[in-house]
Amino acid sequence: MSFTALISARQLAESSAALTLLFVTQKHLTDLQQPVFLPATRALLLQQLCDVASPLSNSVPAASQFSRVMTELGITLTDSVVLYDDGNMIDAARAWWLFTLFGHRQVRVLDGGSPALSGVLQTNAALARPQPASRTWRCAFHAQRIRGLGDMLDNLHSHEAQVIDARRAARFAGQEEESTPHLRRGHIPGSVNLPYGELLTPDHRFLPLAALRRRFQQLSLIPAQPIITTCGSGMSAAVLALALSVAGYSRWSLYDGAWQEWGSDVRTVDLVATTPSP
């Protein structure tokens, strides 16, 4: 697998490099059940990296907000960062995408999250207190890694980008009621479905590289054309983005508004596709 996007627990144990370790979670730290952390790990709460002024959940923050959080965590642009979560892989993947979006080059995700550490590295139940960096973290925004509603509407006509939806098959097909009131059922016309869980093993590690590539090839993707990942709220789409990077696809981006935007916006009322039940 790509060393630049994923790192295994064994590789982490064998590494002699200075690493900045971040445990990523959507939960409050007090809600974590039997937490397992590597020594010197700092906590990164994803709520810190959301635009609270947006009506959409999990929306990407302003560059100034991201920079402030990184500075408070004591992270510099030259740090080699390793992100890990409790094994769901969504939280760490979302953080990886945000780091990538804002220009941090040396960032990897621990394959399998904290459960993968068992028997490989010494862990504890305590987090380190961050020491703010002496210099402000400076963003280098990579606009090619994010897409908005306007981009998605344009793509309906240009068909330039291939769109992959990470939601469950029944949600994609419009066969399930959405949990959010007034949210339409279905998917973006022309998109294809690849539930993110199909890219993970039962212990939530990514599939071996050959299997990962084979799964994407089954979608008949054209590697030279752009690929946009989407999902319900911009979270599990990051798992697809991470997997694409690992598999060697370079022209990918993430639709941050995701179905919560497309399925509710007045501009897309008549732009919803469904799949008939068999």
Descriptive report:
The chain is an alpha/beta fold and about 280 residues long. It has 2 domains: about 5-140, Rhodanese-like domain (Oxidized Rhodanese, domain 1), CATH 3.40.250.10; about 145-270, 3-Layer(aba) Sandwich (Oxidized Rhodanese, domain 1). About 25% of the residues lie in helices and about 15% in strands. The protein contains 8 helices and 10 strands. The protein has helices at about 10-15, 65-70, 90-100, 150-160, 170, 210-215, 235-245, 260; strands spanning about 5, 20-25, 40-45, 80-85, 105-110, 145, 160-165, 190-195, 225-230, 250-255. A 5-stranded parallel beta sheet has the order 1-5-4-2-3. The longest helix is centred in the middle third of the chain and has 12 residues, at about 90-100. The protein is globular and about 50 Å long.
Q: Can you tell me the CATH architecture of the largest domain? A: 3-Layer(aba) Sandwich
H and E string? EHEEHEHEEHEHEHEHEH
State the end-to-end distance. Answer: 37 Å
Number of DSSP strand runs: 10
CATH superfamily of the largest domain: Rhodanese-like domain
What order do the strands of the largest sheet run in, or round the barrel if closed?
A: 1-5-4-2-3
* Fraction in helix: 10-25%
Largest sheet: 5 strands, parallel
Number of domains: 2
In short:
With 278 residues, the chain is α/β, with parallel strands linked by helices. The protein has 8 helices and 10 strands.
